Amino acid sequence: MDPITHTFTGAALAATGLRRATPLATAALLIGANAPDVDGLTYFAGGFVAIAFRRGWTHGVLALPLWPFVLTGLLLLWDAQVRRWRDPHAAPARAGPLLALSALAVLTHPTLDWLNNYGVRWLMPFDGRWFYGDALFIIDPWIWLLLGGVLFVTHSNDRRSLAAWAVFWAFASVAVLASPALVPWAARILWITGIGLLVAARSRPFAAIRREAVLDRAATAALAIVAVYVATTVAAAAAARAGVRAALAAADLAGVEQVMVAPTAANPFAGDVVAATADAYYTGRWNWLDRPRLELASESLPRPRGDVFEAAARAPDARRFLSWARFPVVDIERADADAGFVVRFSDARYRALGPLNGPTVRLDRDLRLAPALTK
Questions:
Q1: H helices within 63-205, ranges in order?
Q2: Helix, strand or coil, per DSSP, at residue 358
Q3: How far is the C-alpha of 362 from the C-alpha of 246, rounded, in Å?
Q4: Residues 122, 130: contact at Cβ < 8 Å?
Q5: Cβ(339)–Cβ(284) under 8 Å?
């Protein structure tokens, strides 16, 4: 999931009352909820290094038990060297609660990442297999509205904080409302209604709800609602995959090896379908509210194979991309100048999204990598 969702999750956990477990409890929850994304630094390496490394080592079974100890050690060092140096009378942070809170926060991170169709490699570094929940879009505005909303209503009082929230809600509203092709009108109306209710709840007549005890209960309730929402989408995703398989079998499409019903932006009732057979990918749209629920595209995408593909796949960026791609696709063109080939890689999951397309590899007529390998 996006960093905002991870941050709101840590903040909402703190707001339930866990912030009082020990000094620096909120820091442990906020930092722990984001810590595995330190692998985002690989984006500075350029090319497709990050796409091959992300959601792997720092999200896997070896790192997850280590993160709480690393984070607790750093927080205790900060407590001793900075916080209590500034205020010698301050109560010291306690290692046990910090470790427990750090472990809780860290575990939420790969769990949330698993929920979308980008996936996470739980077993790294021992096994590079990707795991996909296919339950939530990578940015889910309803989680923003629930968790961000309860924090906004019950916790923000000073002007600078309110100004920051105003900027966030404006940004989020633009993201939801400015994409009519992606976000259905009913979702946009629901979003506007939700924002209106949050603004109303910030008004003077509702000042009483900003007491600390109310904050604890409201944050707990918001997290419980999110948990039910997530569980429902996971169950719905499994049911949708079963429905796709049944519809394809009824259409005499045999040999289906994998089915993905990817969640779409702000719409839990629809999903983008990719069904893989040994030879092709069949794409389409699943919608719980339509009849029939499955609508397939008129043309399938051939699965990549052959000498040209295998030669292009040896390029470093192509290898990195293919280690991440779930449904790899290649488009092969003849190059006019040297009668070689231009091979463009993509993934059927994100084929319509240019920024997530893979590398372009140039081969000469003997299928050797040309000097300008990728772009």
A1: 63-78, 84-86, 95-114, 141-143, 149-155, 159-177, 185-201
A2: coil
A3: 41
A4: no
A5: no
Kindly tell me if the per-residue pLDDT of 373 is higher than 50.
no
Cβ 61 vs Cβ 125: under 8 Å: no
Distance set, CA 198 to CA 23, 145, 176, 191, 230 (Å): 30, 9, 16, 11, 22
d(CA 236, CA 165): 32
Which amino acid, residue 291? R
Tokens read off for 274: 């990719």
Give the type of residue at 350.
Y
| Distance in angstroms (rounded) separating the CA atoms of residues 344 and 362 | 9
Whole-prediction pTM: 0.91
Tell which residue, 122, 24, 116, has the closest CA to residue 65. Answer: 122
- Beta 294-296 vs 341-347: how paired, if at all? unpaired
166-175 b/e with 16+ CB inside 10 Å = b?
eeebeebeeb
Contact present, 122 and 110 (Cβ < 8 Å): yes
Residues forming a β-bridge with 328: 347
Q: Which long-range contacts (CB under 8 A, 24 or more apart) does 96-99 make?
A: 97/21, 97/22, 97/25, 98/22, 98/24, 98/25, 98/28, 98/71, 98/72, 99/68, 99/69, 99/72
- What's the chain's Rg over C-alpha atoms? 24
Question: Measured at the alpha carbon of residue 253, what is the angle toward residues 249 and 255, in degrees to the nearest 5?
Answer: 95
The 10s digit of each residue's pLDDT in 26-50 is 999 999 999 999 999 999 988 799 9
- Strand ranges of the sheet holding 360-363, from the earlier edge strand across to the other edge: 328-334, 341-347, 360-363
- Tokens matching residue 353: 């999204």
CB of 332 closer than 8 Å to CB of 343: yes
Alpha-carbon distance of 98 to 92, in angstroms, equals 11
DSSP state letters, 298-338: SS-EEPP-SHHHHHHTTSHHHHHHHHH-SSEEEEEEE-TTT
Q: Is the pLDDT of residue 206 over 70?
A: no
Domain boundaries, the chain: 1-127, 236-301, 305-363
Average pLDDT, the chain: 91
Residue 280 pairs in a beta bridge with 302
Q: Are strands 328-334 and 341-347 parallel, antiparallel or unpaired?
A: antiparallel
Distance CA 40, CA 90 (A): 35
